[in-house]
Every structure is written in structure tokens, then in C-alpha cells.
């Protein structure tokens, strides 16, 4: 069983949105059975799951005291992927789930505030010696700040090559327990989720050891070769 944790101290970066979408996508692509755990007291992921009509992925309630035992039960009961959503903090339970994880996904919006705040999360993941991957979420196409964010994140670790753009469908689909893949006419957003899952699955199964770089606008591309050496960090 692989364990993927979505973590970021920054509120609203997309942890819950991406955790739900990735869990559903993994199940759709045959990587299941998939289980979800929400250790955020806000309970956004569990609220979403309670609205959901589909029976998969399954949802498991837990506490800090029962976490390790519950994870072991999932492992022995044949769950192939466990996706864990966390609160916007670096609390004890966040450290605990990171300790159990195979991969930590840190979603970040392309804004100076978001980018400045990822350091503390990265530090915690590195202290616990776990691989991490950044996902740029809610990006605006062709915006300068998107290109700058890609450059900056690439210099600090591994950035998933699939950028998640700002699309109202991501928010709208989750209102009634669905995902963009389950909406009619949400092809672009669905494609982004598909590409992100493909990349994360490769990371989990060891098929992509080398960092994969996202497509950059030409102006940034020229700069990339300068930062190439720092890219191997979290791969
Ligand atoms: N790519 C996107 N396009 C449009 N809206 C998005 C996108 N990603 C997230 N959102 C919206 O942004 C808000 C915050 O997202 P989400 O709840 O997933 O963040 P979070 O990191 O889990 O927040 P918190 O730290 O409070 O738990 C939600 O309203 C969500 O619907
Ligand atoms: Mg959340």
C-alpha cells in the first residue's frame, strides 16, 4: 500500500481539492482500492465524502492515538493507495502522517504569500526524510507570476510537470461530492488531474526516478539551465 499525504501550512492551497481528486482518479485508473483519511479538524474532505453518491474511494475516520493501527488494518485488508488530507498547520498529527507516508504532495498557489510560506512545510518533510513534490495549483495561464513560480519551485525541489489551473469546475464539482472527472464537459480540468495522477503514480511505483520538468515559457526556459543542478534534491 502506498501512502500519499497532502500537506501545506498555508490555508487554501488546494490540499483537500487535490486529495479528493487524486483519490478518485487513482480508483478510476485501476490503482485501487483507494482509501481516504482526513486528519483536518475542519473536516472538509469528510464533508465532501459524505455528500458523495459513489461508494469509492472508501473513507476511514481515525485519531492520533489510533492512526498507526488503522493504517496497518488498511494495509492488511488489501487497500492499494491511502490518500491523507491534513490541516493547514505543522501539528503533531501532520508530522505523524508524514512519518507514515511514501510521498508528500505540497500544493501551492502561484502567489508570493503562498510561495514564501512553503519553507516550514518543506523543512518538516525533510526532517522526516520523506520525498516531496510541489504541485502548482490554481494557476493562471500565461501569467508572469505562474512562470516565476514554476522557476522558483523548480529551484527548491521537484515540481510536478502537470500544472493545475484555476478552474471553477474544481470548486463546483466538490459541492455535491463529485470531482471534475464526474462532471459533463470538464475535459481540461479532468486532463490535468489525469496527468497529475500519472506523474504521482510513477513517483510512487519508482518508474520516474529522474525529475520531470514542466513546460516553461521561453523566457524562463533560458534561465532554467542555470538552476538545473538544484533540481535533483527531492527526486
Ligand atoms: N484549481 C482550482 N481552481 C479553482 N478553485 C480551486 C482550485 N483549487 C482549489 N480551489 C478552491 O480553493 C478553495 C481552497 O481549496 P482547498 O479547500 O482544497 O484548500 P486547502 O489547502 O485544503 O485549504 P485548508 O488549508 O483550509 O484545508 C476551495 O474553495 C476550492 O474549491
Ligand atoms: Mg483542506
Name the descriptors:
235 residues; alpha/beta; Rossmann fold; 6-stranded parallel sheet; 9 helices; 6 strands; disordered C terminus; binds adenosine-5'-triphosphate; binds magnesium ion
Description:
- The structure is a single chain.
- This protein is an alpha/beta fold and 235 residues long.
- It has a single domain (2-232), classed as 3-Layer(aba) Sandwich (Rossmann fold), CATH 3.40.50.
- Helices cover 45% and strands 12% of the residues.
- It contains 9 helices and 6 strands.
- A 6-stranded parallel sheet has the order 3-2-4-1-5-6, with helices on both faces.
- The two termini are 20 Å apart.
- The site of adenosine-5'-triphosphate (ATP) has 19 residues, from α1 and α7.
Tell me roughly what share of residues is in helical segments: 40-55%
Percent range for β-strand residues: 5-15%
Which structural category fits the helices and strands? alpha/beta
How many domains comprise the coordinates? 1
What does the radius of gyration come to? 17 Å
Oligomer: single chain
Count of alpha/pi helices: 9
CATH superfamily: P-loop containing nucleotide triphosphate hydrolases
What name does the CATH topology carry?
Answer: Rossmann fold
Biggest sheet: strands, sense, closure?
6 strands, parallel
Report the CATH architecture.
3-Layer(aba) Sandwich
Task: Say how many strands there are.
Answer: 6
Bound molecules: adenosine-5'-triphosphate, magnesium ion
Largest sheet: spatial strand order? 3-2-4-1-5-6
**N to C succession of SSEs:** EHEHEHEHEHEHHHH
Q: What shape does the CA trace take?
A: globular
Q: Which spans have pLDDT < 50 for at least 5 consecutive residues?
A: 218-235
The CATH C-level class name: Alpha Beta
